[in-house]
Amino acid sequence: MNEVYEFLKNAGTYYLATVEGDQPRVRPFGTINIFEDKLYIQTGKVKEVSKQIQNNPKVEICAFDKGKWIRLSGELVRDDRKEAKQAMLDSYPDLQGMYSADDDNTEVLYFKNAEAVISSFTEEPKVIKL
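and the corresponding structure tokens:
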């Protein structure tokens, strides 16, 4: 899991794919955190992406860094605990102007049943189960 976290953290921006009805939706994200041995992302509950995840928790992330790319697929599970939200906000202080661990909008989600594949044009793919 640490290798997946480090890859996404170093890439800075990754792209999260969800489904809305029968239409794929992809958008840039940048938050990634490890809390209680789980890999977390963050968004706002009022956003369409949150609604899409609640309707279908299967997602995929893709990022590119230093000639390699990662695809992380799995299911996202909402964690409404204040501690999980605060851990994310502590890792991303700039978000604290828009989000709070006590508000009804901040949403943190962790991956379950997840698999990451790190690939390049010169090496065999590396599969990591989370």
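(Above: one complete record from the training split.) The helical segments are 2-11, 48-55, 82-91.
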